[in-house]
Every structure is written in C-alpha cells, then in structure tokens.
C-alpha cells in the first residue's frame, strides 16, 4: 500500500496555478449586460400584470356565475302562492298571545 502525503507536490501547485489564471482570464472576458436589471424587472412586471389580470377575470367569472346560478334557482321557484303568502296567515296570528310576565 502506498501512502499519499497531505501536502501537494510541486506539479499539482503549478497545475492549480495555471487553472486559476485560465479561469481568471476567462471570467475577466465576460462582460455583464448593461440592461440586465431593466430587462429582468420588465419581465417581472409583465408577469405581475398578467397574474393580476387573470385573477380579476377569474373573480369576475366566478361572481357572474354565482349571480346566474342564483337567478336560475329563483326562477325555478313555483309561481303559485305558497302557505306563507296565501293570505290565511292573519287569522292564525290572531290566536297567538304574547308571553306573560312572571309575578
């Protein structure tokens, strides 16, 4: 079994140094886009407006659907007068009395 030392050899130091220099030169050649922030912010604002528009349309559709369902349900009610509106309720109400106070 061979044992490797924890300290790198001379050739490894040179390779690492060359790699660092190459990466530094490569990174130095990369120039940031001057309009990157403005472009990203514009895209974010467009997505935000689109999200709000979709939410407003969805709320409007749900509200309109609820109103239409409510009107349809009210329209399905029978047109003949029921027990409540038959006019015979006044005679039944005459027989009722208010509760008496306790002595």
Question: Care to describe what's here?
Answer:
Keywords: Membrane, Transmembrane, Transmembrane helix. It is a single chain. The chain has 103 residues and is mainly α. The chain has a domain at 36-76. Helices cover 63% and strands 0% of the residues. The longest helix is centred in the middle third of the chain and has 40 residues, at 36-75. The protein is elongated, with a radius of gyration of 41 Å. It starts with 9 loop residues before the first helix and ends in a 9-residue tail after the last helix. The mean pLDDT is 81.
Describe the structure concisely:
This protein is an all-alpha fold. Helix content is 63%, strand content 0%.
Describe the sheet with the most strands: none
The Rg value, from CA coordinates, equals: 41 Å
Please state roughly what percent of the residues sit in beta strands, choosing from under 5%, 5-15%, 15-25%, 25-35%, 35-45% or over 45%: under 5%
| N to C succession of SSEs | HHH
Number of strands: 0
Transmembrane segments: 53-74
Keywords: Membrane, Transmembrane, Transmembrane helix
């Amino acid at each position: 079994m061979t044992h490797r030392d924890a300290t790198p050899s001379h050739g490894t130091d040179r390779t690492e140094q060359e790699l660092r220099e190459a990466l530094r030169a490569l990174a130095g050649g990369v120039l940031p886009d001057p309009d990157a922030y403005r472009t990203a912010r514009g895209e974010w604002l467009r997505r935000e407006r689109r999200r709000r528009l979709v939410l407003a349309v969805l709320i409007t559709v749900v509200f309109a659907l609820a109103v239409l369902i409510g009107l349809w349900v009210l329209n399905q009610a029978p047109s003949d007068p029921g027990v409540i509106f038959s006019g015979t309720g006044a005679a039944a109400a005459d027989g009722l009395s208010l509760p008496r106070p306790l002595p």
